[in-house]
């Protein structure tokens, strides 16, 4: 099955479990709206790709890991957009969840999506206790404190921020969760996959910073210039546009180098290279050529 | 070990895992502040009491379940107090988390506590996969959508609210999680414990409604008259004070009746009766005598 179709089906299943008779209609709608239609689903695709490169012997556990990671990503976007953070009226080219449903349902939908992510993974414990024990630990580490998304976001509340820590936690941590949990859900050794996730997460963050700083975005569907406005660390502001582009290319190359030898390695390396081209605006690549 | 000491130790361990070098200091402090010093720890005590009544053969799993339930309860209080919900400046007799740390850290601390709860339970999967698979499902059901705390809170955003649904989900669901997960963590049949949790949750909610409506609170440490102010359903406003007191007494009696026969049943029944006296202001009991 096409990976995107597989991810959408897994997400449909997961979110569908909450959208039943008796759920407060506003909450069910806000949760659905936060997840569908999605963005590029880059994290769950990465999780599936790694699991596939490792043989993917238990696709249902891989689906659980991948969809949980995407649910947590969606939850973080809903909370990031809240008035007290980015106060962003737009996400993925349409009103953000709090703009469409109000702040209260945005807080609750984010909370309920976090719970749903763990519920989705928890359902696979009886069938694959060993793998899911690892996957749940990995995913939780990627989103919570002290070093997950919540921590990354919390650096915005501190006076002094180390750019590297901030990005590693706010963005990189879920990419690491995607590669590591992909291997774990396939019952494969996962240590070697950590660095692939780290490099890709950092590359993605630099691309996002470039999009924000230059206004050249490929389908991000969100406002630009936000980092400057909010005084947030941004690689393009720190390194300059050309410097940031070179940094991103170096990170992608090093992620490709870090892919361990396994039957699916050549295809996975190709996928990473094409994905890197997709997230980087062509105008920017020409600029740095 | 004294149950309260046991719960505090388990919570210390859980929250301590987030309070390490490298965690954004504000986030670590806000998480700690949200959990310590606690309230009556009524939900984890109930969880421990049920596990104990069932023999408690695996105390570490019981501790994980009980502390996860308390972490989720604390997270829900942090988010409930936010300006977009109750806008409560006070909780447990001191500034609420957003009053003390700002709204952004309050949102993030709540999120991180939800993650921490599942992380805490997840750690026991390798040692007790069967029990923890059940416990995680039970606890997730108690907090998420369609019928957990998030759903209960979301009914406040709907035009029409059924008082029973609202209370069952906003308060009862975590009491049910406490009794059911207590039995599950002990590897005991859990079905019979559901009704005990339901009745106690409803009784507790009625006591809370009475405290809010009459201003007679036993150590709740939060403002009164909030339900009326926010137009929220309240049993004392709906049934009158005397009616609500009788309802609460009936619920406690029926919870005691529902305790299944097990070696620890007599002691557990005594504990429920004394707990019911503790949460009900004496002046109110005299009123309804």
Task: Tell me what the structure shows.
The structure is a homodimer of 289-residue chains. Chain A is mostly helical. The first copy, chain A, has one domain (3-288): Orthogonal Bundle (Farnesyl Diphosphate Synthase), CATH 1.10.600. Helices cover 70% and strands 1% of the residues of chain A. Chain A has helices at 3-16, 25-35, 42-53, 59-80, 97-101, 103-122, 129-143, 149-154, 163-185, 191-214, 226-230, 235-239, 241-258, 265-279, 282-288; strands at residues 90-91, 94-95. The mean pLDDT of chain A is 92. Chains A and B meet through helix 2, helix 6, helix 7 and helix 8 of A and helix 2, helix 6, helix 7 and helix 8 of B.
In short:
Two copies of one chain form a homodimer. Chain A is an all-alpha fold and 289 residues long. In chain A, 70% of the residues lie in helices and 1% in strands.
The largest sheet of chain A is:
2 strands, antiparallel
Oligomer: homodimer
**Tally of individual helices of chain A:** 15
Mean pLDDT of chain A: 92
> Which range does the strand content of chain A fall in?
under 5%
The third-level CATH topology of chain A is Farnesyl Diphosphate Synthase
What CATH architecture label of chain A applies? Orthogonal Bundle
* Count of folded domains of chain A: 1
Question: Considering the protein shown, what is the CATH homologous superfamily of chain A?
Answer: Farnesyl Diphosphate Synthase
Question: Would you report the number of β strands of chain A?
Answer: 2
The low-confidence runs of chain A, each spanning 5 or more residues with pLDDT under 50, are none
Secondary structure: helix percent of chain A? 55-70%
* Helix/strand order of chain A: HHHHEEHHHHHHHHHHH
- CA distance, first residue to last residue of chain A: 37 Å
> Class of chain A in CATH?
Mainly Alpha
Shape of chain A: globular
Sheet with most strands: strand arrangement of chain A: 1-2
């Amino acid at each position: 099955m096409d990976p995107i179709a597989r991810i959408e089906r897994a997400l449909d299943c997961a979110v569908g479990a909450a959208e039943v008779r008796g759920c407060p209609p506003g909450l069910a709608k806000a949760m659905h709206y936060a997840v569908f239609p999605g963005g590029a689903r880059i994290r769950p695709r990465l999780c599936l790709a790694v699991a596939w490169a490792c043989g993917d012997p238990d696709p249902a556990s891989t689906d659980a890991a991948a969809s949980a990671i995407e649910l947590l990503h969606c939850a973080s976007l809903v909370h990031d957009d809240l008035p007290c953070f980015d106060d962003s009226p737009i996400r993925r080219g349409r009103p953000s969840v709090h703009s469409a449903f109000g702040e209260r349902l945005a807080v609750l939908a984010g909370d309920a999506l976090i719970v749903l992510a763990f519920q989705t993974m928890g359902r696979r414990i009886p069938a694959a206790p060993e793998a899911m024990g690892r996957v749940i630990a990995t995913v939780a580490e990627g989103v919570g404190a002290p070093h997950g998304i919540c921590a990354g976001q919390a650096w915005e509340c501190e006076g002094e921020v180390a750019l590297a820590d901030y990005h590693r936690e706010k963005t990189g941590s879920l990419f690491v969760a995607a590669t590591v949990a992909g291997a774990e859900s396939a019952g494969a050794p996962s240590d070697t996959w950590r660095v692939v996730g780290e490099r890709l997460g950092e590359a993605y963050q630099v691309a996002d910073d470039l999009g924000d700083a230059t206004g050249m975005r490929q389908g991000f569907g969100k406002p630009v210039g936000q980092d400057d406005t909010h005084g947030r660390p941004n690689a393009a502001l720190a390194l300059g546009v050309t410097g940031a582009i070179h940094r991103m290319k170096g990170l992608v190359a090093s992620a490709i180098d870090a892919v361990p030898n396994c039957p699916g390695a050549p295809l996975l390396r190709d996928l990473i290279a094409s994905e890197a081209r997709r997230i980087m605006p062509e105008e920017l690549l020409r600029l740095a050529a």
